[in-house]
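Check out one such.
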Amino acid sequence: MERKEVFSSRWMLLLSTLGMAVGAGNIWRFPRLAGQYGGAFLIPWTLFLILWSIPLIMVEFSMGKTTRKGPIGAFADFVGKKYTWMGAFVAFCTMGIMFYYSVVTGWALRYFVAAVQGTLISTEPAAFWNQFTQSSYQPLLYHFIALTIASLVIVQGVVNGIERANRILLPSLLILLIIGVVRALTLPNANLGLDYLFGFKSASLFNYRVWLEGLSQSAWSTGAGWGLVLTYAVYMREKEDTTLNAFIAGFGNNSASLLAGLAIIPSVFSLSPSPEDALNALQQGNQGLSFIAIPQLFSTLKGAVIFQSVFFLGLFFAALSSLIAMFELSTRVFMDFGLTRKRALMVTAGLTAILGAPSALSLKVFDNQDWVWGLGLIISGGFFTFAVLHYGVTRFRETFLAIPTNDIQVGRWFDYLMKFLIPVEVVVLLGWWFIQSVQWYPQDWWNPFIPFSLGTCLLQWGILIGTLLFMNAKLAKWIKGENGNI
């Protein structure tokens, strides 16, 4: 039995939780959506922080702190043995993201190196991107480097590894974002970007896509429903607050997104020939915005090498802090099955190296995995909601949230959200993305070999859920230690 570890202080827990939540999605996805819809997007995005993310973060903190196990063990203990497969789905869904997220982290590191070398100035950005991603070895090499760095952190444990890394990564990321904001706001015509980012057009609020995108961004950016907060909560101190921590984590994540938006959107509007060109740049998609449009625009600045280097170092730090959390989740799962931390980490690193390689070698595979497991997070959020409903919403609130040790006493609003609104959000959000997929491929929506088809989601989810249901009894026994594994 390994020595039980806990975070050294509340602030170290919060720092690590913020490091988990503040990832590449804050820097590349939020500016794209805010740039696409303007200031009206900020309203649903903020509302769903309260109506989706923070309640689910509270649930994860409570389950992790109570059970002291990763997602699989937590569901087995908290909901019941026959629902162990739900925790396993949460775990494997996030692990599926981890496999290709390591590739993204490697991309950011490669671009930081290229920015420092001045390569991004001397090479046309689209050509550099194509050359890099089509290389037979570079994306794979940087994928291995990224997972190696994450492994070196996790092997040190919670205090010496996760805490120490986030002491450096999160403050450094904050400083880099602030530098980016200051530089962006001092550019000529930066006010055009500010007007667009914060300009309110009431007509946009009647566009249902604005609300659905606001919900999806909040769900994916904060890490609510991923099982990552639950994993860090395993290492909470006994008297640690769960409610205030959830609010700080949620609003801290959104603050980082706003900083990223302030750094990127005014820059894009300032450096583009016209507002129409700026919007086109912002809407190029995650990879197109971060790895093609921004390097191209920043190359026109004086001191472009410095500004590009700051941007990609910030992107790398953001991605790495989230990757570390995913590695810890996977490592925690295997530790719950009885492995030591080092052996559990070896399994995690090996799986990431092998199963992430296809995404490193093929953008088509990368896009497919991002689509399948990104949508899978909605199901994971639904499973956490089910856990509370099964336990009893009022009982859950009175037992874990409305208690004297919490600085914020959660009221009955939590009950209404968990019973009614969040289940509706799960169905609507998942249904919307399904409809989108069918509209993209009206004739071939069923084809599992099309990256963004509905068929590919149903097939991969079906295989995973079917396997987990078949293995449910064994998983419950192994996680409980009934075979002597723990």
Residues 84-117 form the longest helix (34 residues). The chain has a mean pLDDT of 92. The CA atoms of residues 137 and 378 lie 34 Å apart. Residues 10-480 form a domain with the Amino acid/polyamine transporter I fold (CATH 1.20.1740.10).
